[in-house]
Specification:
The chain is α+β, with helices and mostly antiparallel strands. It contains 9 helices and 18 strands. A hairpin with a 2-residue loop joins strand 3 and strand 4. Helix 1 packs antiparallel against helix 2 and helix 8 packs across helix 9. The chain is elongated and about 70 Å long. Bound molecules: S-adenosylmethionine. The site of S-adenosylmethionine has 21 residues, from helix 4, strand 13 and helix 7.
């Protein structure tokens, strides 16, 4: 599938004849021909300058090229009553997932890639069995899998899995044997996991108001139970300066994690890190 955002579309506008541009949101480059007013793709599909201008105008969306036309990569689910969109963040940076207007990664102060590296840095060295509680686009699961023995990751929403399938940056979720993808509610699924099993846990839930149970004492008790002794955890809580995911949330999360038994708890970049001694 060929995918374009405004960042690649701007390259099309500058170029004539033959040029190279990314058709997978920055991962690789492909040659495009410009002949008689049409941009011609490797499979023979053609689009016009007007198509390119539309992509630049709709600057918070990604588009696929299908049947010589551009199709917005978004979906609405009647089941969840939510709108899902792959949202571009830069010329060669991974897109984020926007669910009804809420972005699933930090994208303003840094790229989703840097955001993911930061999260993992609090559980370094990231080795052994890793629990990634909330898959999203799979960036934490994928990066963790590069050093871990196995990553267990859980996604409650099948619509997010549909977005993963079209996102070139999520590909490894489907072809990396070290990643064990599960579709299910981690609040329930964690009860099936063994005591003292995981070396590392990365807990990156949606905002508190969208997933209250994933910030509950009962869930933290389960996270503590499945973490090995000497294991490390990072819990994303959100930006301390922001209205909804503020300093109080970080303090409350820290207190609850302490009650569950976690030690060496620290307020760190957008979250709380800790250990099981
Ligand atoms: C902030 S995103 C995670 C981003 C992820 N770390 C990444 O690298 O892309 C949160 C994700 O958790 C999912 N989610 C929400 N509640 C869940 C639950 N109870 N169990 C599993 N996944 C859940 C949401 O659908 C969303 O995709």
């Amino acid at each position: 599938m060929y995918i374009l955002s405004k960042f690649q579309a701007k390259v099309f506008l500058l170029e004539r004849k033959e040029f190279s541009v990314s058709l997978d949101l920055g991962l690789t480059k492909t040659k495009i021909q410009f002949v008689d007013g049409f941009f011609i793709f490797p499979d023979g599909q053609k689009i016009t300058i007007d198509h390119i201008k539309k992509i630049i105008k709709k600057d918070t969306s990604c588009f696929s090229i299908e049947n010589n036309d551009i199709i917005k990569l978004s979906l609405f689910s009647d089941d969840t009553n939510k709108y899902y969109k792959l949202m571009p963040t830069g010329i060669d940076t991974p897109p984020t997932l926007e669910i009804s207007g809420i972005r699933m990664h930090v994208t303003k102060s840094m790229s989703a890639e840097e955001d993911t590296k930061k999260k993992i840095s609090f559980v370094e060295p990231c080795f052994g069995y890793v629990l990634d509680t909330c898959t999203g686009l799979g960036y934490t699961a994928i990066l963790a899998s590069h050093t871990a023995r196995q990553v267990f990751t859980y996604e409650i929403d099948e619509n997010c899995v549909e977005v993963q399938k079209i996102n070139p940056w999520s590909k490894e979720l489907f072809n990396n044997p070290k990643i064990k993808m599960n579709i299910g509610d981690i609040f329930l699924e964690i009860k099936k996991l063994k005591n003292n099993f995981f070396d590392r846990i990365i807990h990156d839930p949606p905002r508190l108001t969208f997933a209250t149970v994933l910030y509950s004492q009962g869930f933290y008790d389960e996270l503590f139970r499945v973490l090995k002794h000497k294991g490390k955890i990072y819990h994303y809580t959100g930006h301390p300066g922001s209205k909804n995911r503020g300093v109080h949330l970080q303090d409350n999360v820290l207190k609850r994690m302490q009650r569950s038994g976690f030690k060496n708890l620290k307020k760190v970049f957008n979250g709380v890190s800790g250990e099981k001694i």
